[in-house]
């Protein structure tokens, strides 16, 4: 049995009473559903830098490019440097994570849209939590998300897909990265990448085509950055429809007219938003069991890992 993917997470989301007021912000989907598959690594940076529970609340103030974390009612309390240092230390220590789930709107953990107050005018803008910023700076390829955004099925699906792809890449990179294994990795992910944009798939293909002609470490770093950037682009129903039609092409000489028409109808119903994507996928897999194809059998788009299949909705 493979070890579970380690996911960093704000401690309060798991029910730990580490909030400034002594409470928690437990997210039951995260703790129960995701907790069955992932190994969580909880961190509360505010507790980590020595602030107690309960404690005076803090907020971000000043310049969005270099905000300060100060007390809401105690402006002389400034924990900026401590949070930044703790974020750098933690990023170096937790260098084996497969993803990170941050607490939204937190001045320490918020990934985006954290209230940022302008001391001069009293108005507020938006910033990034100081601890979260350091984690993302130190590990720019790491899949990150906030618990609130995980309530959106499409955003949740995108995050989970990135986690599993990133984990497979890191596993390959640590074990046996060669020109051949890089080509094999890319081949297995071609249809996954196509769903995020054919231009990204082609660009990555051009990179892979240079395997064997340049240093593998240099190529791997460039490929990994382009791979994770590609996956951040939304896989839209239109793009998924293109992938499904592409897959159907491998069956065009094997299916009866009626079976082909049934698949075309289901794919169209998915494109129009009347059916989830899992419906045409299920029928495609049924036909490929009767008419095997080695290329399709190796594609993770139709054949994800059991853990990924358990969590992803395939809308």
Which SSEs are present, and which pair or pack?
Elements lengths: L5 E5 L17 H6 L5 E5 L1 H4 L9 E4 L6 E4 L8 H14 L5 E4 L11 E4 L6 E4 L2 H9 L5 E3 L6 H23 L3 H10 L1 H5 L3 H11 L7 H17 L4 H12 L8 H15 L6 H13 L3 H4 L8 H6 L4
Parallel strand pairs: 1-2, 1-5, 3-6, 5-8
Antiparallel strand pairs: 3-4, 6-7
Helix pairs in contact: 3-4, 5-9, 8-9, 10-11, 11-12
Q: What descriptors fit this protein?
A:
315 residues; alpha/beta; four-stranded parallel beta sheet; four-stranded mixed beta sheet; 8 strands
Structural features, described:
- With 315 residues, this protein is α/β, with parallel strands linked by helices.
- The protein has helices spanning 28-33, 45-48, 80-93, 130-138, 153-175, 179-188, 190-194, 198-208, 216-232, 237-248, 257-271, 278-290, 294-297, 306-311, and strands spanning 6-10, 39-43, 58-61, 68-71, 99-102, 114-117, 124-127, 144-146.
- The mean pLDDT is 95.
TL;DR?
This protein has 315 residues and is an alpha/beta fold. The protein has helices at residues 28-33, 45-48, 80-93, 130-138, 153-175, 179-188, 190-194, 198-208, 216-232, 237-248, 257-271, 278-290, 294-297, 306-311; strands at residues 6-10, 39-43, 58-61, 68-71, 99-102, 114-117, 124-127, 144-146.
Strand order of the largest sheet: 2-1-5-8
Total number of distinct structural domains: 2
H/E element string? EHEHEEHEEEHEHHHHHHHHHH
Q: Roughly what percent helix?
A: 40-55%
């Amino acid at each position: 049995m493979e070890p579970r993917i380690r996911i960093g997470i704000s401690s309060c989301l798991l029910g730990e009473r580490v909030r400034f007021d002594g409470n928690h912000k437990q997210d039951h989907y995260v703790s129960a559903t995701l907790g069955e598959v992932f190994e969580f690594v909880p961190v509360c940076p505010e507790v980590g830098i020595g602030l107690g529970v309960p404690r005076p609340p803090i907020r971000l103030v000043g310049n969005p490019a270099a905000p300060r974390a100060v007390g809401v009612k105690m402006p002389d309390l400034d924990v900026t440097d401590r949070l930044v240092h703790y974020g750098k230390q933690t990023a170096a220590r937790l260098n084996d994570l497969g993803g990170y789930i941050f607490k939204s709107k937190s001045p320490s953990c918020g990934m985006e849209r954290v209230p940022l107050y302008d001391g001069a005018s009293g108005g507020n803008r938006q910033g990034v939590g100081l601890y979260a910023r350091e984690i993302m700076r130190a590990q720019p390829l790491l899949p990150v998300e906030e618990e609130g955004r995980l309530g959106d099925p499409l955003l949740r699906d995108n995050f989970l897909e990135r986690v599993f792809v990133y984990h497979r890449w890191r596993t390959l990179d640590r074990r046996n990265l060669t020109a051949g294994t890089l080509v094999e990795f890319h081949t297995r992910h071609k249809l996954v990448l196509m769903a995020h944009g054919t231009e990204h798939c082609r660009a990555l293909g051009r990179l892979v085509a240079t395997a064997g002609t340049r240093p593998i470490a240099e190529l791997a770093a460039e490929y990994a950055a382009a791979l994770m950037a590609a996956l951040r682009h939304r896989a839209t129903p239109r793009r998924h429809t293109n992938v499904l039609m592409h897959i159907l092409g491998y069956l065009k000489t094997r299916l009866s007219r009626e079976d082909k028409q049934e698949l075309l109808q289901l794919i169209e119903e998915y494109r129009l938003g009347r059916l989830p994507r899992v419906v045409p996928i299920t029928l495609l897999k049924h036909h490929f069991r009767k008419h095997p194809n080695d290329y399709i059998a190796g594609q993770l788009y139709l054949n994800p890992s059991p853990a990924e299949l358990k969590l992803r909705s395939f809308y």
